[in-house]
Design a protein that fits this description.
Elements (H helix, E strand, L loop, with lengths): L1 H5 L6 E5 L5 H8 L3 E6 L2 H11 L5 E4 L12 E7 L8 H13 L1 E17 L14 H7 L4 E13 L6 E12 L4
Parallel strand pairs: 1-2, 1-4, 2-3, 4-5
Antiparallel strand pairs: 5-7, 6-7
Length: about 180
Amino acid sequence: MKFLEENKVEGSRILDAGCGEGKNAVALAKLGADVTAIDCSEVALHNAQNAFGGNSVHWQCSDVRNLEAGVKPFDVVVAYGLLHCMPSADEIASLVHRLQELTEVDGWNIICAFNDRQHDLSAHPGFDPCLIPHSAYLRHYQGWEVTFSSDEDLHETHPHNNIPHVHSMTRLIARKVKR
């Protein structure tokens, strides 16, 4: 993770929003972070706990959009593969705003999402992602210090069906600055 090349997370409070099967959450916890991993899929969280056993991650089955107001802000909020799963561009905007609210001043958001440039979804039958432009993600972070952003193609082979395919990906690292 590019963020870790320049930042230490030991002692940080981290939210892994839409954590899926928990690879990022566990990796960050192993580096000494206090990680809360939230996903709305009980199956994904069950798989995470089975795959990684006892660890220091706080697993929570819920929708991150419904986190209670008043939750103590996090030092780092990660949304890896979550935003394009929202049903609309308005839902993406609303969720980004919520993730920003959940971030401490001088804290970070790390975003990785499919964007609208090019996709081969043959490896993902039935999946209908919400695809917005890379520039829209950047607009959501106006007023933040964007330290990294990229719009590149990800060529991969799906691990469950061995189908090679491509996705255009927005990657963004932004720091919340005082206003």
